[in-house]
Amino acid sequence: NYSCGINYTKYDTIFIMTRRLRTAAAVVLGMHDALVSLTGMIGGLTFALAERRMIILSAIIASVAAGLSMGASCYLAEKTNDNPHALRAGAMTGVAYLGTCAFLIFPFLVVPNTHTALIMSFIMAVVVIFACNWCIGHARGRWWQHAFEMLVICAGVSIISFAIGEVAKYFLGVAI
Predict the structure, then answer these.
(1) pLDDT, tens digit, 9 for 90 and up, residues 80-99
(2) Helices 52-80 and 114-137: crossing angle, nearest 10°?
(3) CA angle 105, 108, 164 (to 5 degrees)
(4) Is this structure's pTM higher than 0.85?
(5) Could you tell me which residues come within 8 angstroms of residue 146 by beta carbon, excluding any fewer than 6 positions away?
């Protein structure tokens, strides 16, 4: 089996495929967590705060803190499993998290109306979900089922966060 002039044995191929799957898993972990947590947070903040700059500031602070936490957590989990590429997995998770967050925050930076920015952010989240699942899973088939599952989870968390924001506003007596 020759590829690019390199003679790979069966074991080399298995090692390469395992490393790629672990890298893909780290990317999916970071991306999915960012989609679920940040879309939920942005949804809740949009209706609770309504002030665009506060939404952006809160989202950036939460994104950086959570991205670093996700990367560190992935690294520690992989290190616990004796993965020699634990640092790479942690870095990939953190970068995927931060990149996804930047993508989701971007509409709030360019669109003055927070509700329009929120809709655009949700549309971008759907695009990211389907694109990522297609890229990673189309060879295995049923990629659309995984994408739909991720979409339902993301939407569910966003709806719950919106409800929490509304309930918190009511009980805290915040009128915005």
Answers:
(1) 988 888 898 899 999 999 99
(2) 30
(3) 75
(4) no
(5) 133, 137
